[in-house]
Amino acid sequence: MQPEHSGSLVIRMDGAFDIESVRAIQSRIADLPGDAEVYVDLSRVRVFHDRAVAMLADVLAATLARVSVRGLRQHQYRMLRYLGVTPSALDPGLARAAPSVDL
Question: What average pLDDT does the segment 46-61 reach?
Answer without folding.
Answer: 96
